[in-house]
Design goal:
This protein has seven helices and seven strands. The chain is of the alpha/beta class. Strands 3-2-1-4-5-6-7 form a seven-stranded mixed β-sheet, with helices on one face. The termini are close together.
Length: 189
Amino acid sequence: MKRIAIFASGNGSNAENVINYFQQHRCGGEVALVICNKPDAAVLDRAARLGVDAVVMPRAEINDPDRLLPVLDEYGVDVIVLAGFLLMVPGFLIERYRNRIVNIHPSLLPKYGGKGMYGSHIHEAVVAAGERETGITVHFVSEGCDEGEVIFQASVPVAGNDTPADVEAKIHELERLHFPRVIRETFID
């Protein structure tokens, strides 16, 4: 059984989707833990409701191998999934989990990636640039922000009258449809 830790910072809709998928599909993977850097994030309530342990670790603890690694070891974590995690992953974690940390990004990388490009900022930039398509990218996490090897991309059209909220809704649907399956195909199947 591959044990997954989800790192998240906010609402947790992607985390909930991944947890539900692995609870329903009994496919050799399970979400064992949620790590969150914000004590008031909604993802903590979602994890509790779904029966998944959650640990709040501020940035300083996440960046400290003597604090973070024992928690991951305690839960026997094999794979790390970033789902709306807004901190840079520390180098020691990337090294230990090389090609076993994935992120989902709400654009077709390399477009609209890098520092400051997350959430609504991306959707606003896509609309402002007059893009005709956007999408999601699932990629391995590397030392560079949004620069890891691409595992999967899916796209959707952007209509001329789409607002950032419209684009966000389309992206959420792609995330819901694809993210858990890509995790499964990458690490479990």
